[in-house]
Amino acid sequence: MKSKYYLALFFIGILPVLGLTGVYFGTVLTQPPPPVPKGASNGAAVQTSIQLLKTQVDSMASAMSNSIKSINNDVPTLSAHNSEADLSTFKGTHNGVSGVVVLSVNGKVERMVPSAPPLITDPAYGSSEEFQKAVGKLKENGGQPYLFYTQKLGYPAFVFAVSVSPREVAEVVVGLSNFFRDISANSGDMLFLEAGSGLMLYHTNPSKVGALFNPNQEGWLNKVQSDLAGGAGGQVFNPDAVSAVYSYAGFGKFGIVHLFSSSILQPASPGQAASSKSPWDNPQELIQTPMSLAALICLGWIFIAGSLFWGTILGPLRRATATVLNAANGNASLTPETVSRFGKDEVGQVVQAAAALMHKVDEEKQKAAQEKEEALKRGRAEVDSKTKEAANQASTAQQQVRTAQGELAEKNQLLNDKLKELDAMKGMSEGLRNQAEQAKSESAKLKSQLSAAEAAQEDFKKRLVEAQGKVAEMETKMLTAVAASSTIQVSQVRAAAIRTMAEELKTTLGIIKGYVSSALGTTQGGISEKQQEFLGMVINRSARLEKFINDLVDIYQVEIEQAEAKPEEVNLASEVEGLAFNFQAQAEVKNIKIKVEAKPGLPKVPVVRRRFNQLWNILYLQIIKDAPRGASIPITLEPIGDNVKVTIQDPGLTVAADALPKLFDEFYDPKHPASPQLAGTGLKFALVK
Q1: H-helix or E-strand containing 595?
Q2: Would you state the pLDDT for residue 512?
Q3: What is the Cα 417 distance to its own chain's centre?
Q4: Is-contact 630 669, C-beta < 8 A?
């Protein structure tokens, strides 16, 4: 069955080709030489030669333009892809590229393709003014590609520079000689001209690279230069002299110029002119030549033989196509009996392949449907399991939240009770103050009685006066002792009560924070975002209350320490500067500069070391928190008699004038309208006082 297809191919295609080939060789062997025409003019031949040279220059200019534009568009990709493999790929996919190199901004070669021979041979290239200028241009342009011309590599080239990182630069080197490789040395001079400056950036004679194109200002060369500067090409023909064809390079004011001697433009020989004539110029001659007649006979034979074999070849194909389409549409099936009807030739094999393919597709459909059903079952089971698990977690979380809310209410009640105890302690303090006043009143009565005794006993005046002096001295000592002992006793009792209350409050706050943190950490799946926000507020408020308690205890502790602490003489300038150094890390986060300047002649001053350090820690923290980013904070120390005056210029938030008298009062906090988040406990400046 296969023989009919091969027979059709032989009669329709191979046999006519063999016949036509035989006729052609017979015609060539028996054809006489063509007659030589007389009086042929060489003007058209010269123009044809010039046009061929112009076409060659145009092709070179187009290739250079396309290459430069492609490199310019793709060179930014080196910023992200600059490994040696990436550099090699870039070089291989861009015409005219001699190599790609990555250098540090200091000029050190990091990666280079090709590595041999090296693209850069000058060890001082990285320190050259040309490379440093390219680095500067990239910084000015924000890393955008920068194109420049160079001869520093030993040959004229364009270089595309682009930043690949803050410390690396990639350079793509385009050697101009790559576009002039196919130029014959006997065809004249080829050059690449920058028409604006008139410099030849490339020349087939290396000694002329960088020279002027038209130093003598010849008219016809001026035309070449002006045309290229305007973006146009052209040609100039000077018989018995040098001629030129030139083409615009497609960018800048660059162009390619071909200078050649007019003597090389020789006209075509008469034999060549005759052979170039086409037989189609005279249709009547087509049937007069053996070759043309043989071609017409072959066409006729192909048409007749093709018609005879058309039905034989396409009939089985049409039946096979209809059977496969019916099976694909579901109107029939490709059973073994149906497939066997087409035999074992090419058509039968196609039908067999289609039947096998459709059988495989059916099996894949059944398998996919089964896998889909199993996946749906597994998905439904997982969804049901996750739903039950989420419901259980939500129920547990709600129960824990209710428990935490109950405990929080109990702790709030306990806090209120402690606050009431604090009020009671304040009342006790007032009672002690009243007792001191009564002692003073009794002392005044004693004075009155002594005066009356002095009037009644004039004869004992001298002794009474002496006694009065002693009584007055004793009275003073007694009042001082009573006042001191009362004050110290009251302060100690009050401080002890406040410390006890503070420990109790901090213990309670620790329990509250522990319960809330546990609720947030173990039941996140059952607590809504709003509930999480409320619990977070509870933790924040607890921390703020704990800070307030610590500051309050510190205030009353200061009152006792001031009566008992022993001051020491210190150099205030070195102490202030040393404490400033401790906060240098916090200041550098906001780029804040703290400068301490000490005037000459500073005396030593007495301070309580612990409270002095606490004072400056508070001041430095407040200044750094309020100061804007990048601020400078000068601190000046100058002598004022036996004292030292410290001046701090704080560029941070400004306190309103009406708030200044109350700035150091307990529990007063000058809240700034622009920054309510800076509000504190109101005890820091009271502690400073």
Answers
A1: strand 593-598
A2: 75
A3: 57
A4: no
